[in-house]
Amino acid sequence: xxxxxxxxxxxxxxxxxxxxxxxxxxxxxxxxxxxxxxxxxxxxxxxxxxxxxxxxxxxxxxxxxxxxxxxxxxxxxxxxxxxxxxxxxxxxxxxxxxxxxxxxxxxxxxxxxxxxxxxxxxxxxxxxxxxxxxxxxxxxxxxxxxxxxxxxxxxxxxxxxxxxxxxxxxxxxxxxxxxxxxxxxxxxxxxxxxxxxxxxxxxxxxxxxxxxxxxxxxxxxxxxxxxxxxxxxxxxxxxxxxxxxxxxxxxxxxxxxxxxxxxxxxxxxxxxxxxxxxxxxxxxxxxxxx
Length: 290
Description:
The protein is mostly helical. It has 13 helices and two strands; from the N terminus they run ααααααααααβααβα.
């Protein structure tokens, strides 16, 4: 039975295809993702607990062996340097693994019901990704309260810019997770694939160790590492957070992108990832036929 006949004929399907109903469907799916997440306390603890433990353990263990900056006033400990990376790690974990609901909804039959509804695919993708984005930003803001324990002075303007940048980065990562989840039939396979993608993506973002600046005669390993980190779009999200949290910090011998480049690349990353998610959602999978 076609979706038009299922909803009362072509006239009813055309009415439901109005942009107003598309936005209503997107907002309903978004709210469903938020409610589902906060009802699962283990997901809340896991998504914020792991980066928090990493930040505390690595920050305490490497604080004496890591110093970056010129002069005692501008030097950063590893706890300070690692904070933007830990913040993006929380956003990354929450945004990506919220996409597991795609696999769960397909298994439970809910996704098939959404697919036959006379709404555009972008509305379905927007609802799912926007829900994951809001959850990731909320989790990141909770972790951001730990900045009060560090010598960080965050103005209202830079705070709003930081929230906006985290939102764009979360949308990009959620869309990336959506694209992978759409092509995956099991949560075990999704975890395996995303761990293979996520850890190199985060490690090469400058969140854990700085990207080396190009010297006059760099070694081959430094050259490869430098350009690999520059090609990583997550490097610009981490760099943007770092610039907003510590705008006056100096990073001698390290490559940290400028704030304008961070905004441009992160916005482009979000647009491309969301467009890819919409394009992939138009493809049918074997799970959709069950």
